[in-house]
Design brief:
mainly beta, Immunoglobulin-like, Neuraminidase, 2 domains, six-stranded mixed sheet, 3 helices, 38 strands, about 5% helix
């Protein structure tokens, strides 16, 4: 009897250990990793990613198949905003779902409820298998609504147990507008945003129209403009405002215009757009290349080597152009060339800095500017007009080794120039900042310079926003850029300063897009209670978002 009991005990322990071993194997067999990303969900864009589901399968001879997903949409503000939801399979590719990554559609839902069931069949491979929950928004979706999908369950045949890991879930994604996308109007790439609000309240977005490639000048590039009369919810078809066509008998790809900056005269309402025109190509020695045709492949950049040179002639140096509108951005004048008026002969280059200009309290119009000095070294400065844009003057350089600056007027009347700083020394992590009280005759470096606002060496935007709170007039400085110290450019973030740029408290950092993109941005005051931003997003070439001031400044929270 004792022997029998012993045998039974051994058998029982064997099966317990076997069961324990099997459970361990089942637990480790499949891991489900669910992740949300802080990226905008866009109107005018198909298949916005809202949830990534990674199913990890170890080496196994089992045949595993996904048969069903259950997804929740209870975090979305308005189900009527959502036209449809799909689950896409991208195989081993973890990148955003796109034409080159999607391997198939697992399921689709067009009637949106709090719980969505997707039935399909997808065989899993050993390793990581990626599924994306994507949605499409209606054109009437409010920019203030939020999108938040969640993972409920998955059914996988051949698998009885799995581990679910959630990363960054519970993110309420913001709604934006894809103002310009790759291949819109058969244009390869849209880049370099500028944004301004007219006296009538119209939003004007400007940008490079890079027709044939994403490459900088020289190339077939024009300056385009989009108008919005409803706070950025919808945008009119693109207008071209600067295009030198086939000037001088050269093809359009040798007459590119780029790096536009927009300025609204707050007194007259007149609107100015400045851009840099490059005619032909200079070789590595700075000599004009003759005989260029449509078949020619010569290329050089105005910022590279000797791509722009001292002098004024179109065959010597890139040209500073300006166009104007007096009807709220609907029509634009023929371009005026300001090169001889504003550029010093010995400088290799004078160009607008991309983004937006300002009107000072006394009516002075100010464009942020950039150039290359008599040694070819980059610098930042301003050009300004004291007579409503009839004539323009140029300041002294504010800082060496910088470009792509932004300008604001502080409360004490001084101008602050915030600059992309490409020649940082060891230990320096941020943008260069300088101020002037005499329109750039003299400059002094600001105490926040080079170590306060970190950057990966990229264009950024700076805005002075004025508002009232409890009957008291107030203002803040608002700044946007990729909030990283080194490439790649990612984490498009808005920051706020309550002390004219001395400090930028981290508790007010406002992340818009954590994805990798080209990173340029431009801010404007849509109205007293709203900040608008146009930026190069991970989700589209140019994206507009609207941010309530109360949310940005955490008022009444």
């Amino acid at each position: 009897m004792k022997n029998l009991l012993y045998i039974l005990k051994v058998i029982l322990l064997y099966f317990i250990s076997l069961a324990s071993f099997s459970c361990k194997n089942y637990r480790d067999e499949v891991t489900i990793t669910v992740r949300q990303f802080q990226v905008p969900v866009l109107k005018n864009r198909e298949n916005n990613p809202v949830l990534q589901i990674k199913i990890s399968v170890p080496d196994s001879d089992k045949n595993l198949n996904v048969r069903r997903f259950r997804i929740t949409s209870s975090g979305c503000d308005n189900h009527e905003d959502i036209e449809n939801v799909q689950i896409l399979f991208t195989g081993v590719d973890s990148l955003w779902p796109g034409n080159n990554t999607v391997k198939g559609i697992f399921g689709k839902a067009e009637k949106i409820s709090r719980v969505l069931n997707f039935k399909g069949e997808q065989t899993l491979s050993t390793g990581d298998n990626y599924f994306w929950v994507v949605c499409n928004l209606s054109h009437s979706t409010s920019l203030y609504n939020r999108i938040d999908f969640g993972f409920s369950s998955v059914r996988i045949t051949g698998c009885r147990k799995m581990e679910v890991i959630e990363i960054n879930t519970g993110i309420r994604q913001r709604v934006g507008v894809a103002v310009r996308k790759h291949l819109d109007d058969n244009v390869h790439t849209y880049r370099i945003p500028g944004l301004a609000t007219t006296k009538a309240g119209t939003l004007l977005a400007i940008y490079d129209v890079r027709r044939l490639s994403s490459r900088d000048l020289q190339g077939d590039i024009d300056i385009g403009l989009s108008r919005s009369t409803d706070g950025g919810n919808t945008w009119e078809p693109m207008r071209i405002v600067l295009d030198m066509d086939e000037w001088g008998g050269l093809p359009q790809k040798f007459n590119g215009v780029s790096d536009a900056c927009i300025l609204v005269d707050e007194n007259s309402g007149k609107i100015f757009v400045a851009g840099l025109w490059m005619h032909g190509v200079l070789d590595t020695a700075g000599r004009w290349i003759e005989g260029l045709t449509e078949e020619s492949n010569a290329w050089e950049h105005q910022w590279r080597r000797k791509g722009s040179q001292p002098g004024f002639d179109v065959r010597q140096t890139s040209q500073f152009l300006i166009t104007t509108s007096t009807d709220d951005g609907k029509t634009w004048s023929e371009p005026e060339n300001l090169t001889r008026m504003c550029k010093r002969r010995e400088w290799w280059l004078l160009a607008p800095a991309p983004g937006r200009g300002i009107t000072m309290d006394d009516g002075t119009l100010v464009f942020p500017a950039q150039g290359r000095d008599e040694n070819g070294v980059p610098f930042s400065n301003i050009i300004y007009s004291l007579d409503g844009g009839l004539t323009w003057k140029t300041s002294n350089p504010a800082f060496s080794g910088t470009n792509e600056c932004a300008v604001v007027q502080l409360d004490d009347g001084t101008l602050m120039l915030n600059m992309r700083y490409g020649q940082r020394q060891k230990g320096e992590t941020g943008r260069a900042v300088a101020v002037t009280s005499d329109l750039g005759k003299t400059w002094r470096e600001h105490t926040s310079s080079r170590n306060t606002l970190r950057e990966p060496v990229c264009m950024a935007s700076l805005l002075k926003h004025e508002y009232s709170l409890n009957g008291e007039k107030k203002h803040v400085l608002v700044f946007s850029n990729p909030d990283v110290e080194s490439p790649p450019r990612r984490n498009i973030t808005i920051k706020v300063s309550f002390d004219d740029g001395l400090t930028w408290p981290e508790e007010y950092y406002f992340l818009l897009d954590e994805g990798t993109g080209r990173g340029y941005s431009c801010l404007t005051s849509v109205d007293e209670r709203t900040i608008g931003i146009l930026y190069e997003s991970s989700q589209a070439d140019l994206v507009f978002e609207s941010i309530p001031l109360e949310e940005l400044l955490k008022i009444n929270k």
